[in-house]
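chain below, 599 aa
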Amino acid sequence: MVKHKKLAQWIDEMAAMVTPDSTHICDGSQKEYDDMIRITVKEGLATELNKQKLPNCYLFRSDPSDVARVENRTYIASKTKEQAGPTNNWIDPDELKKTMKGLYKGCMKGRTMYVIPFSMGPVGSPISKIGVEITDSPYVVANMHIMTRVGTKVLEVLGETGEFIPCMHSVGKPLEKGETDGGKWPCAPLDKKYISHFPEERTIWSYGSGYGGNALLGKKCLALRIATVMARDEGWLAEHMLILGITNPKGEKKYIAGAFPSACGKTNLAMLIPTVPGWKVETVGDDIAWMKFGKDGRLYAINPEAGFFGVAPGTSMQSNPNAMKAMNRNTIFTNVALTGDKDVWWEGIGYDAPGKVIDWNGNEWEQGKSDKPAAHPNARFTAPAKQCPAVDPAWEDPAGVPISAFLFGGRRPSTVPLVHQSFSWNHGVFLGSIVGSEVTAAALDVKAGTVRRDPFAMLPFCGYHMGDYFKHWINIGSKTSSDKLPKIFYVNWFRKTADGKWLWPGYGENSRVLKWVFERCNGEGKAVETEIGFMPTVDAIDRTGLSDVSEQDMKELLTVDRKGWLAEIDLIKQHYANFGDHLPSELKAELEALEKRLK
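prediction:
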């Protein structure tokens, strides 16, 4: 079945190291998916959910030590520490391989080794890349079926000499003869977990975790950490961005990509239902965008994923009806609560728990009687993107969709206005480089009001020195004429009044800001030039039918807080100091120009 010599050799080499009982090459069929689910149900790792309410849906509960990405166990093992930069954990690649080979030795004993050929992006698209993940987890195989394009058709495109990214994964729990997992989620202890990236080799090795981005190696590991390095070397962009299509009442359509740190409503924005009459928003992707220049000099984007791996808590018919409808069938739920009639429940679902439920730890739980949540805060749903009612007709177009605008934003109760537009490409890169969210008093390790920077929302995901990443963005701006580059905007849905009330209602009302962005891309949309960028005039954002936001609120949302921005300048200087001589001179110049304008 595997005609690719290098791939066949790698599979043999890995099998010799991990010594599985058997090997299975994945074909991507429905039968294969069903087999994986059947294995996990039989093992007691999965529960079939209510067939009437949630057909073909299953619930998994992970080990309490294995519930999220483990950033302190995630490594960028570039040849030198300098190349990894100050924002990544670095270990010498030779040393790391030695350690991990020791762990991998015999680690699949008693298990099947699954070989998953997968395509990130539509199979055969010039923007797509092929990976091959080896794993001993049927849970991973099933999730990869939803999140990527898996199977025989990928091997056909790979042919005998195509490029692929080898992704090695094991849960790190070998089984003795006759031993089973006994219904317990298999993983290794925290100090034995490793999620390792070898950027020069374009290789990923993961050990000890069976959860999310630590185990579904197409996701953050390939689509961002390795892809950022490939994008830098090949002249394209691999970004932690949603992609949406927005159509005005005349039927004109534009595509917008946006980067937001976690808990800033990225998935909600990607699947937004507009409140402005006659406007329509459709989803291309909710998490990752790969962009290359087309023949016409514009940037074209694909969503390299085929599914949504979304955070369940807080998702409801109020906050994101399209996500709720996308996960009502053929979905894998992990670490949510189970109701008496085999339905799912989580905090923020929009209604109270129906009596006693079983929490994510498998214990009885009653609302109001426990101080712990029923669903883990990072509980997830894995749902096919094609099930989203708002999925864009071009979401799988191999050519990608042309991007007209980039949005950046974070949670900022003060200082940053509702929306402003950059003066130029480099000024836009400057805005992306200073993205951050204000930390609340709940985060005990820092002072409330401190801004936690997450440049381009890429802090945990950039596979090389972040200062060089900023420079790559600046270089992208010189590859085409400025009129063909996307326009860059900074948004902030999270402004508050002095007494702590939200100034902007958010959710569907964010379509009003998107409308202004659309108009600006069309050379329309009223704006004034301010010290920080182009800002809408008070009447430029359509408030028809919006009673919650007064003229006064609008003024507050769209003023330049000069004092706040001067304090911000000092914070940006501290942030930039982290990048040393890798900080591009263009960004220093943008910061100096901003300070000058404010003073």
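The radius of gyration is 24 Å. The first strand starts at residue 22 and ends at 25.
thats it, cya
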